[in-house]
Specification:
Largest sheet: 2 strands, parallel
Distance between the termini: 30 Å
CATH class of the largest domain: Alpha Beta
Order of helices and strands: HEHEHH
Strand order of the largest sheet: 1-2
Helix content: 55-70%
Radius of gyration: 15 Å
Number of strands: 2
CATH topology of the largest domain: Nucleotidyltransferase, domain 5
Shape: globular
Strand content: 5-15%
């Protein structure tokens, strides 16, 4: 059994790395291909994306407010960014 079955996951949310002006970056194009592969492999799950622009900036602001040691920031910035992505998704889909 895979992790989706163990935790009864019904939706996968992916951060879409658009450029600040809203254009697709090279990374966004790769992310679209990744999402397509996810949809093919996990066709019974909902696969959605969230614009992740500025989530890293928000994560750094949060870490600064919490006075997190600069050496620890590198290890947790992606985790905090993921929280902002999921929070955005949940608010959008209430």
């Amino acid at each position: 059994m895979n992790i989706c079955g163990i935790y009864e996951i019904d939706t996968i949310v992916v951060g879409m790395p658009f450029l600040l002006n809203g254009d697709k970056s090279d990374r966004a194009k790769k992310t679209e291909k990744f999402i397509h592969k996810l949809k093919c492999k996990y066709n019974k799950l909902k696969i959605d994306w969230v614009d992740e622009r500025l989530t890293t900036v928000a994560a750094h602001k949060t870490m600064n407010l919490l006075d997190i040691n600069k050496h620890k920031k590198k290890n947790i910035v992606d985790t905090i960014s993921a929280v902002y992505i999921l929070e955005t998704y949940v608010k959008k889909n209430k």
